[in-house]
Fold this sequence. Notes:
Blueprint: E1 3-7, H1 11-23, E2 27-31, H2 34-42, E3 49-53, H3 61-70, E4 76-80, H4 86-94, H5 99-104, E5 105-107, H6 111-127, H7 135-146, E6 151-152, H8 154-159, H9 163-170
Helix pairs in contact: 6-7
Amino acid sequence: MESILIVDDDINLCTILSEELKEIGYTTHFVTNADGAFEYLHAGNHVDLVLLDLVMPDKDGFFVLKKINEEELGVKVIVLTAYADVKSAIEAAKLGAADFINKWISWGAGPRESQYLILAAKARSVLDGRFTPNIDDVKKSLIPVLRHRLITSFNAEAEGVTSVDVINQLL
């Protein structure tokens, strides 16, 4: 089972993300600041993925990204932020956050699409006679929900990469 560490100063968002991810089979833990993230990581806990907010009081998400790289923790990081801009996306990519997405996507899905993805997975599970979705429901819903919400960049078009290819790489 994959383990996800959520690092965000919004406790409500942490709780919702954690509950939704647990419903589809992930092990989750959340902390509300950078120091909490490193306490958890240094305590020997296994983490496959960090969902990281960029804007937090005291130490921001860029600090966390830099430390993860410096300490060579070998964990993947996806940046979540309500304050996205091109400069922040470029800096996050340089620090190792989802580099290929920034290379191939010029405009991507937002928070609303993640809600639609969860709803689609739940609908798929109900149609299959189950009360809760599993990871396969999410995977099967990714392409129908996201393919028309991702706009590929010039680099992607030049390489023949489509939005469906990007989604398949995420899988």
